[in-house]
User: Which sequence fits this backbone?
């Protein structure tokens, strides 16, 4: 574990040095091809860094933070597009925005509140909701001790819960120093996805909003502009939505390769293509069916949850289980906790 922590520290030192180069050098170049060329070494470095760590959690974070979000943000930066343009006033803020799953909130409080009107967090204080999720995660790890006695589908369901809560918690932790040091108000990273009443609601307004936010300017908007010349304003969003899901699927295939070093089986890509097709159909139906004639919210919630969970069991988790990544994900976190406890003075580890 000590060697792995050293590798993780090296990854982030290299990332910080690279982003400092972007801040002090690349930002001074004119936008467009010259700035893009100056960023190419950083693109390749960010794609390489996840290969230098071995723990499943560290690989996941390096892939999403650097190889995915970081590279797409720098691609926008090359053409003077937000969130890194105009360049933030400090190097710390530039590095934070470039390498972490955070987004500076720009909407008015009244608007953002109205968008979150269906959140459970409106009824429960955030610390209470966080404590509940931590408690659920602890229960999941406890039940892993009896995994050999559980049905395989129950185990996969536990993996689903574990991955959702851990990803949300890790994202939330990364935002803490930025809020504390810079005093920035940040956009929510997740929005209670288990309350989604449609696939459009799940993917567009609730699940991993940092990925949604970066895929919109890099994939959705360009495809939409191109499609507008052929399809017109009514149906122009459909190919753009599908393109976003295809790109997301390919990025997840990259993550799975970093995890397993096994050639892609393309199941994950088909998972996202299936959801992309279903979401485009849903959007198309909403354009022609009046809101009064749509399904009740409870029914649409149940259908959304069932479709998402069912396709996750069918296409998303099999390659994780088949390559043993699930076992690594369940072992890594307890190992880290044990290692950190070992660093504490012995008096801290003694309980009455």
Assistant:
């Amino acid at each position: 574990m000590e060697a792995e922590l050293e590798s993780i520290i090296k990854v982030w030192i290299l990332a910080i040095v690279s982003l400092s180069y972007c801040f002090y050098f690349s930002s001074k170049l004119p936008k467009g091809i010259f700035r893009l060329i100056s960023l190419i070494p950083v693109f390749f470095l960010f794609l390489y860094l996840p290969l230098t760590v071995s723990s499943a959690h560290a690989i996941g974070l390096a892939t999403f933070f650097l190889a995915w979000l970081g590279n797409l943000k720098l691609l926008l930066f090359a053409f003077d597009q937000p969130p890194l343009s105009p360049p933030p006033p400090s190097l710390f803020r530039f590095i934070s925005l470039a390498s972490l799953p955070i987004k500076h909130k720009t909407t008015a409080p009244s608007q953002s509140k109205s968008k979150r009107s269906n959140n459970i967090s409106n009824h429960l204080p955030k610390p209470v909701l966080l404590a509940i999720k931590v408690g659920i995660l602890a229960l999941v790890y406890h039940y892993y001790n009896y995994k050999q006695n559980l049905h395989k589908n129950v185990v996969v369901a536990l993996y689903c819960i574990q991955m959702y809560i851990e990803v949300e918690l890790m994202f939330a932790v990364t935002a803490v120093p930025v809020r504390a040091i810079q005093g920035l108000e940040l956009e929510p990273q997740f929005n209670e996805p288990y309350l989604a009443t449609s696939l459009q609601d799940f993917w567009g307004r609730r699940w991993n909003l940092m990925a949604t936010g970066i895929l919109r300017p890099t994939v959705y908007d360009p495809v939409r502009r191109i499609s507008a010349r052929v399809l017109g304003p009514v149906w122009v969003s459909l190919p753009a939505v599908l393109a976003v899901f295809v790109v997301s699927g390919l990025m997840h295939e990259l993550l799975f390769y970093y995890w397993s070093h096994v050639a892609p089986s393309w199941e994950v890509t088909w998972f996202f293509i299936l959801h992309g097709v279903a979401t485009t159909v849903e959007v198309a139906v909403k354009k022609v069916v009046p809101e009064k004639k749509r399904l009740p919210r409870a029914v649409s919630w149940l259908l959304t949850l069932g479709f998402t969970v069912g396709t996750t069991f069918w296409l998303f988790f099999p390659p994780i289980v088949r390559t043993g990544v699930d076992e690594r994900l369940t072992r890594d976190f307890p190992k880290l906790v044990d290692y950190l406890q070992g660093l504490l003075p012995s008096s801290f580890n003694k309980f009455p």
